[in-house]
Amino acid sequence: MGGMGGGGGSIGAIPGASFESATDPSSMRTASGFHIVPMVTVGQRYDSNVFFAPKTPGLDRDDFVTTVSPQARVLFGGDLVSLNTRVGAIGQFFAKNSELNNVGANVGLVVDASKFLGQFWPGTRFTVADSYVFTPEPLAFLTGNLDTQEVNPLLRGFQAIRANTHSNSVSVALAVPVSQSLDLTARYLNSLTHFGEPKIQQEGVLDGALLNTTFQTYAVGLGKRISLQDTVSASFLGSKADSGSTQSFSGYGGFVGWDHMFTKKVTLRSTVGVQKVNDNSGSGNSSIAPGGSLTVFWNDTVRSWRLSYNVGLTPSLQFVGRPILTHAVNFTVTQRTFIENLSAFVGLNYGRGNELGGGSSSSSSEISYTSYSGSGGMSYKVTPKTYVVLIYSYSRFNNRFGSQIFELDRNLAQIFLTQAFY
Fold first, then answer.
1. Which of 124, 153, 247, 309 could be joined to 243 by an S-S link, Cβ 3.0–4.6 Å?
2. For each successive 10 residues of the chain (422 residues), what is the average pLDDT?
3. pTM to 2 decimals?
């Protein structure tokens, strides 16, 4: 859904996210066997800001865009390994700005090899997930993400100007039982974003280049089940960011967590901790940064919703590669209506980032941003293989570099039809 609008997160997102059950007829589940489910989506949208730019004299920012997106989902459920993957492309054709016509690509997959490793160490859980996107419309938020785990920590609200963007995020999770109630856990996440040249330059910016950035985090710890409903954990966490030209930082610290299952439908996940952050660019400065998350997740046959808050470090993607303390709030809900086969969905996002250890907002080089977006729509299941979706979204972004302020907003109104073949 977000891929059709160019500003969300479903295209290239890990399968299982982004209002999938309400908008994607290929999101069938299989207990065993191998299945390939092709599908195609065609759509039309009105976009008030195709350049992702502030209001500029002489720049006509709005346009009507036709989209065509063929995709294929591959599902495999075996005795030892299960696989859920999606591969696709999206073509966009602009009515007024034909020079912006483009073709993007996306791949998302989840591999679960728990049964295979369980042969050698019973109870072991192991998953690998990957999400890759090539798009000329840089993403700011993962709109509509219902996953209880974060997919890409770089997507917390910063909106880059229109530029060709390669984004890839790989995550690995391992849990090995030490006893009946104690697990040794390990997690690794590697997210990278590479930018091409912006389509237009931001007025007044002397060095507004977008930064090719790699961000890695890893955690090793223990998780202990203390009751049927509760699990507590403690982990060592490390992180490292690299934006080139000696613009990098690293951090390490500790976190504790608590997971609680209120009912089979409602779960809570939470973490809290701190990191010591070292500036690796040569200044030798270090700071202490808080971190943590809180997520409440509800899922039943009629309604799914997720409310989450996350605070942590991300690297700046523009100007200079400094550590940014980011706050992100996300709320997503999908609801079946009283009309058969008609579902409604809403997504709200808020992101705020400030340079770690920065001074006043008027500093000549301090980086900060504030962003929010909201989307809502309806999906009608014409047949189990055919969905028609209407969606409207609004987003606003405020990026600052010292005394320079860049504000932009965007309205999207779109309709699309998705047909699966199986």
1. 247
2. 34 48 74 87 94 83 94 91 91 94 91 95 94 89 58 83 90 94 95 86 59 94 96 96 82 96 94 91 76 92 90 88 91 92 93 79 74 93 93 92 86 93 89
3. 0.87
